[in-house]
Design goal:
The protein has about 425 residues and is an alpha/beta fold. It contains 14 helices and 19 strands. The strands form four sheets. Strands 8-11-12-13-14-15-19 form a seven-stranded parallel β-sheet. Helix 2 packs parallel to helix 3 and helix 8 packs parallel to helix 9.
Length: about 425
Amino acid sequence: MVYHKCMKVLLINPNMYRFPPVPPIGIEHLAARLEEGGHVVRVLDLCFSPDPYRDLEGAVLSFGPEIAGVTVRNIDTVLYETNEFFLDEIRNLIGRIKSEFGLKVVIGGTGLMTDPEGVLDYLDADYAVVGPADDVVNDLLEEFSGGGEPAKIWRRKYRYDIACPRRRQVIDYGAYFSHGGIAGFETHKGCGSSCVYCLEANSYVSFKAISDVILEIRDLVDAGFSRFHLCDPEFNEDLDYCTEFCTALKRSGVKIDWALYLKPANYNRRLFKLMKETGVSLITLTVDSWRKCSLYYADIEKIVFMAKAEGLKIVVDFLAGFPHEEESTLVYFLDMFRRLGPDSVGINTYIRLYKSLQITPVIMGDPGLRKYILGDSVNSFFIRPVFYNHVNPGRLRELIGGDKIFRIEGMERGVNYCR
């Protein structure tokens, strides 16, 4: 659909975190959607910029945009020990865009899920799109270009099967690869699980057309890239879909090396066989210790064993130390991982709190738990980093006992696929 007024839109990636650097694929999809709507788009990727403000000025003066879009991938690095807070730098950038160039600013990205109104207010932006922006951003621009005053908050319309055009050429993948980054793709948006600590819990799920995803991968392979990381929350949201995807990837003949996340659900032996045949080199299994039924433990065991049977490397991301959790629960999981023998287990006992999480009111409403809060808890929006932790770090090291299978998260930067 082409909209009534063509606008010049400057899309900006302000994410300069490089451990590892992550190509902004959301901007690639958004650029394609805007061009479908008849708009003219330029992308300013500041990830490797030595002088972001100079590059911003150059882009604005040479392109002459009528509106700017800024992505907020994360508001911080989530881990406690090496935490970096990103919003102050983004706020300064947005302030420069508005004060020096008189442009309205639309923000989007996963970081908004923490608290859309709070992040919009903190950054002093004009509009925010919550959820993937590709289906609503053209509507926002139509209203804006018509002289009206669009709503401050826009929310994406979800549907089951979505097309996903992508403008890979707007990002310099060579720069990302030379700094340790790898290509990404996704098969769906949202997550149907109900983890109390996760921003994407119980969110609407939209699956992408498999043929479109295969074309994305083929395009990147043809451009010389072969290593990929899946950007889904977890790959196995739906067993039928991910089986169909792997089958299509295998039949396409496209050869890649890819890493992915799984949750302890929705799997069978065929899926693991297909993952091996399509080039999966690393599985990260997401596990937590929050009040589980017995089937959860059985699923963890089966997934680790099935991965190992296919010769697939499998590591565990383990979050523990929930409110009122006894040490015996942590010991149970440590003993289980020792028995199962995944390639490694990353342990995190610092729970990042956000306003929108289910667990936040549980902790804030219990005076006995509030003493374990670290960070700016006076800020009711939880925009600046706030953590809950009642597990003594020294005691955790004692329980690990020098076992090399375990790694305490937050002590070093990086993610599983680049370690």
